[in-house]
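Minimal example, chain plus iron/sulfur cluster.
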Amino acid sequence: MKKKVRAIGLISGGLDSILAVKVIQSQGIKVTGLCFTCPFFGSQHAKAAAKGLNIPLIVKDFTEDHFLIVKNPPHGYGKTMNPCIDCHALMLKIAGQLMENKGFDFIFTGEVLNERPLSQNRQSLHVVANTSGYEKYIVRPLSAKLLDETEPEKKGLLNRQALLDIQGRSRKRQISLAQEFDIKEYPNPAGGCLLTDRAFSNRLKELLEHNVDPAYFELQLLRFGRHFRVSSHSKLVVGRDELENGIIEKFIIEGSFLFRTDEVPGPVCLLVGPDAKEHLDAAACICANYSDTKDKTECKVMCEQADKYREITVITDKAFREKGRIN
Ligand code: SF4
């Protein structure tokens, strides 16, 4: 009996990756999805897409390897802290290793030639694939007819004529294909990766300037609250609403301090860093001045560490609001 051809595809959950699956499946090929997680993006959209497509999905946390390239990308950054060429190459390298270990015949992605002028032009697609070490096995079904023939096409595992020739930034063909395939729900293609967000990137850059090897929780914390640098080594994170207050208080770890006002509504604040205990007063001041102190000249702030509490009385001073604020 003829062996069924099996392919592993990078799934972001966006329309292009969904269409790429459909195009490959239309040749009777069995598809498994692959997506990645790290503190900068998650697997939520990919999981929803895999469920809709009814395909198995492998979810890989590649934080360690990915963070190395975020800190030092051989091919540089995009507009913000996004190392797209090396990030994509790393994803394809891991896909290639899975292909070898799990017996897939080839890898595919939803990339479209020239859809993104910098990271998806012909040269970038080649650099990404070449850097991954698996270039011959990487098929881009949406633009395949415009690209060099790959090994699975040469071997007859894939019919090149049934692949597509989409290119450019217009989404018209993808939208009409979505209708043909009856795909109704898909997320916005721009969303998802925090490294493309300028405010987030500025925070990350500032963190790396003070600590080249931050802990996982410090990267996660970058998503929440206002951030104040109280010393070279320590930071205060101030919740901006109830939801963030609830999230931030869960980040309390050994050596960190939690602040909240006692008598007036105010934020939950988390002070983290090796010299945090030397900056309790400054942290309490910031906490008080982001609280509803109105005309009060004094505010009591509770400081918690490892189930021990102390009260710090702050003379309110609006000038503290902006002092040391990162963004
Ligand atoms: S946008 Fe983010 S997830 Fe996508 S390739 Fe660039 S760095 Fe990686």
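Residues 84-102 form the longest helix (19 residues). The mean pLDDT is 93.
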